[in-house]
């Protein structure tokens, strides 16, 4: 029985709905407790705005178009940085995982930079590129590139030897082996690396905007926090969390589909 067929059985559906119900219940209980703290005066509303105030602030920001504008800025920075990291990181990771000489050249540099928090380069990016779009894009690229490169290169090195032996037994040319065995075998690791890169990239965007920006979700957190508009801060934080959850859920779905056709050893 295939994984897809097994997941449609009544027991699997029941577990799925139980999981959804418990998750929704936990969120609802959290919101009720959060609202109760503010309604009973147990917490200063300036410090912790209740859900009612956050919802009202969200509707105002949405109605004015301000929220959409800042979300658009952050998403553009994230998507461009991620796109560049994928275009560079996937080929570099595959080559470094398959060819030792490429790994010997790239590992010292990538290992050193990976061990360094990317956000420390923010002042340099601002000095070189100014406060705007490209300084955030470069920071996202650096953070995402290392996630993709390291995951993909490790995945290529972990390929099942059985498939490589089969290709060797049939006297397959190296180019054919690389194209037909190595690259398809690396796809699950590519998806896993993209998942890691997306989460880290979103965090990098927000932190970079907190430090120096004129727009974006991080800018909203910094600006409204300084002006003690905590409800607006929570709106920006919740939207950021929501974007991260949506991106992660989408990539996990792709990851599950990829794992279904991945050849077994």
Write the layout of secondary structure elements.
Blueprint: H1 3-6, H2 10-39, H3 51-64, H4 66-98, H5 100-114, H6 122-129, H7 134-157, H8 161-169, H9 174-211, H10 217-226, H11 230-261
Helix pairs in contact: 3-11, 4-5, 4-7, 4-9, 4-10, 6-7, 7-9, 9-10, 9-11, 10-11
Structural account:
- By secondary structure, the chain is an all-alpha fold.
- It folds into 2 domains: 1-43; 50-261, MetI-like (MetI-like fold, Orthogonal Bundle).
- The protein has helices spanning 3-6, 10-39, 51-64, 66-98, 100-114, 122-129, 134-157, 161-169, 174-211, 217-226, 230-261.
- Helix 7 runs antiparallel to helix 9 (174-211).
- It is flat, with a radius of gyration of 23 Å.
- The protein starts with a helix and ends with a helix.
User: Unreliable stretches, pLDDT < 50, 5 or more residues?
Assistant: 1-7
Query: Largest sheet, described in full?
Result: none
What sequence of helices (H) and strands (E) makes up the elements?
A: HHHHHHHHHHH
Topology, number of strands: 0
Q: What would the keywords be for this entry?
A:
mainly alpha; 2 domains; about 260 residues; MetI-like fold
Brief overview, please?
It contains 11 helices and no strands.
